[in-house]
Design goal:
Elements (H helix, E strand, L loop, with lengths): L2 H5 L3 H24 L6 H24 L1
Helix pairs in contact: 2-3
Length: about 60
């Protein structure tokens, strides 16, 4: 997802998206360690998605304070 799309989500939806993305990253790491993951670039894509979500959550936290 793009950052603009993530900013449109509510706090609860962002938290749910973060959880789903982290679970997806866990599964990709498991596949990678077993040798089943071909395009390993998916790992860095998931990490960037997590970073985007956490950044947006932090921005909201700072604007509320």
């Amino acid at each position: 997802m793009k950052a603009a799309e993530l900013r449109e989500l509510s706090d609860e939806e962002l938290a749910r998206q973060l959880e789903e993305t982290r679970e997806g990253l866990f599964n990709l790491r498991f596949q990678h360690s077993s040798g089943a993951l071909e395009p390993t670039s998916q790992l860095s894509v998931r990490r960037r998605e997590i970073a985007k979500i956490l950044t947006i959550m932090r921005e909201r936290e700072l604007t509320d304070a």
